């Protein structure tokens, strides 16, 4: 237990955490359970490394007490602790409106890699309220969807409408464009598939140029040279275009990439994805 605490404390010191995160981690508020709680919510899973159980005492529509038990990193403890502080004294309507972004703001921010801890807090709260409201909860969710608050990226509370606006008003065409404009997808990445589906729906496919085979090769080479290779070089890797046969693109990985255990993933998730986004959805990247 002592080793675990020291471990987590070191991580808190190593990451760029705010003073509030450190304070809530070192002296968490409202730790424990509530006997005869009126609502209990859970989120996360031990297999994923973080788990939170939230207990609420509710009197006359007001949360009079909130406690938590958590197993997770320092920021999970801090997010759970600050959430209970935020909840005590709030009406259920006010509590329902607390977003994970507000939990993070209350801690003076969390690093993007740790935003999922605030999402876990929001999810446990949602679970507790769902259990409390029971069947009325689906009506609440339907109403929120109708009002356009369908959240796609929970880490940054980005709604479907905000993503559609980024596409229609800011000319976003790729997942990276959406991330730059809205921050969606910059933390846990669980929203990536949903964002891509929205892109498919709203980005007109015909906007991709119709290229003849020579133009296609030139474009693939330009993208590899100007976008993909510079990214790989940041980690001392490199890439070279070897050949293009129809939609099959043959490349050679160099430097660190040539010996990297994740080379296949890099080819699929970065090189191929980028070429699909910018040149042709049918492209398959293979190592020469
Ligand atoms: S849901 Fe975590 S980054 Fe979008």
Q: The biggest beta sheet, please? A: 3 strands, antiparallel
Shape type: elongated
- SSE topology string: HHEEEHHHHHEEHHHHEEHHE
Strand content bin: 15-25%
Q: Helicity range of the residues?
A: 40-55%
Bound molecules: FE2/S2 (inorganic) cluster
Instruction: Find the count of extended strands (DSSP E, 2+ residues).
Output: 8
CATH architecture group name of the largest domain: Alpha-Beta Complex
What is the CATH topology assignment of the largest domain?
Sufe protein. Chain: A
Integer count of domains: 3
Q: What is the terminal-to-terminal distance?
A: 50 Å
Low-confidence stretches: 1-13
Mean pLDDT: 85
Radius of gyration: 23 Å
Secondary-structure topology with pairs:
Layout: H1 2-14, H2 19-26, E1 39-45, E2 50-59, E3 62-71, H3 74-87, H4 92-96, H5 100-106, H6 115-133, H7 136-146, E4 151-153, E5 158-159, H8 160-170, H9 175-182, H10 192-202, H11 213-233, E6 237-245, E7 248-255, H12 256-259, H13 263-278, E8 284-287
Parallel strand pairs: 7-8
Antiparallel strand pairs: 1-2, 2-3, 4-5, 6-7
Helix pairs in contact: 2-3, 3-6, 5-6, 8-9, 8-10, 11-13
Bound molecules: FE2/S2 (inorganic) cluster.
FE2/S2 (inorganic) cluster binds at residues 116, 153-155, 184-191.
